[in-house]
Design brief:
Layout: E1 11-13, E2 22-25, E3 31-32, E4 35-36, E5 43-51, H1 58-75, E6 79-89, H2 96-112, E7 116-124, E8 129-138, E9 156-159, H3 165-173, H4 179-190, H5 194-202, E10 207-210, H6 215-227, E11 229-233, H7 244-249, H8 255-264, E12 268-270, H9 277-286, E13 295-299, H10 301-313, E14 319-326, E15 335-337
Parallel strand pairs: 6-7, 11-15, 12-15
Antiparallel strand pairs: 1-2, 2-5, 3-4, 5-8, 6-8, 9-13, 9-14, 10-13, 11-14
Length: 338
């Protein structure tokens, strides 16, 4: 838990509202007594993320970790430029060849995004973790960052990837997922959010987050609290990875996902029958902790239809999943499930 950023007028987005990355102004113009005057000064986007392995293949793990870290910059409406490797490696348990292969996977994924890895830092650690510290920029003329404070009543919500990587990852570790399910989950996690962000920009998105460790419900609530709104979600529109429902029903639900569900439950208003097992399972999957999940984007319905057409043309499993509404103080953050 970070305190508010201390006293810099150049910090445009800090830690206060749980945004995906920090956004700072690089002051090139003259600064007056109340702070910098250059609204056209470059804006940098700063983020870092590390994860534990969710698949066995080192190259795939490196690619997933890279896609996961780069996504925070796209979620703010920016373009990632440079990255640093962050390595926590148990060299007494694993050969360095494993690390080399992880870093190759990350390098190749960054090259796909036209991002250069320019260095890094390694720590001997009992458990393997890997990720990136990423620097990007909000390009001139692109307007304001897609902060959690910028969603508006009447907008709809677009989700650009299917849910279920937490359940699938747990099932993979427990040997319960099929080879086809493993391949599909890996393909989803290694897919960059670059194209989704490009389409969101063209379709005039105002707010965005990527769906990762807090699950769809947790990240949606960050937007709702930041923008003082409530939401209505159509559970049957949620895109799900193949096997996610069945593997959840078989008990392959991560502890982190259950914590997400417990945290979100007081804010949920369920409009479905207590006998509707399909809706109940989808509610739990909406809390599933994702790795390298999709973008959750707020925009007008007309633009959302256009974005969805573009996403489906590039084989994204995407959907319009709900809508945003105004809220009284007691309703802020509430999520109605139908």
């Amino acid at each position: 838990m970070l305190p508010p950023a201390a006293g810099s007028a150049n910090v445009l987005v800090g830690p206060e509202l749980a945004d995906d990355a920090a956004v700072v102004r690089l002051p090139l113009g003259p600064a007056g007594p109340d702070g910098p005057s250059g609204e056209d000064d470059p804006k940098l986007i700063l983020t870092t993320d590390t994860i534990a392995p969710i698949v066995d293949e080192p190259e795939a793990f490196g690619a997933i970790a890279a896609a996961n870290a780069l996504s925070d910059v796209w979620a703010m409406g920016g373009r990632p430029l440079w990255a640093l490797n962050l390595v926590f490696f148990p060299n007494d348990k694993l050969p360095l060849e494993v690390l080399r292969r992880i870093m190759i996977g990350a390098r190749d994924k960054c090259e796909e995004a036209q991002v250069a890895i320019v260095g890094g830092h390694s720590v001997r650690n009992g458990d393997l973790k890997f990720g990136l510290a990423v620097t990007g920029m909000l390009e001139p003329g692109r307007g304001r960052p897609w902060a959690n404070t910028r969603a508006m009543p009447g907008q709809v919500l677009v989700l650009s990837k299917a849910l279920g990587t937490g359940v699938l990852g747990t099932a993979i570790k427990q040997g319960a997922a099929s080879e086809a399910e493993r391949r599909t989950a890996t393909a989803s996690m290694t897919r960059l959010n670059q194209e989704a962000a490009r389409l969101a920009r063209l379709c005039e998105a105002t707010a965005c987050t990527d769906v990762t460790g807090f699950g769809l419900l947790g990240h949606l609530r960050n937007i709702l609290k930041g923008s003082r709104l409530q939401a209505r979600i159509d559970l049957h529109r949620l895109p799900l990875l193949p096997g996610a429902m069945q593997l959840f029903a078989a008990g392959h639900y991560p502890g982190g996902s259950q914590e997400n569900f417990n945290h979100a439950e007081p804010a949920l208003l369920r409009r479905y029958s207590s006998k509707d097992q399909d809706a109940a399972r989808r509610t739990h999957l909406a809390a599933d902790a994702q790795t390298s999940g999709g973008l959750l984007v707020a925009m007008r319905i007309e633009e959302a239809e256009r974005m969805l057409e573009g996403l489906r043309a590039t084989e994204h499993q995407a959907a319009i999943i709900g809508e945003l509404h105004g809220a009284t103080p007691s309703e802020v953050g509430r999520i109605e499930l139908v």
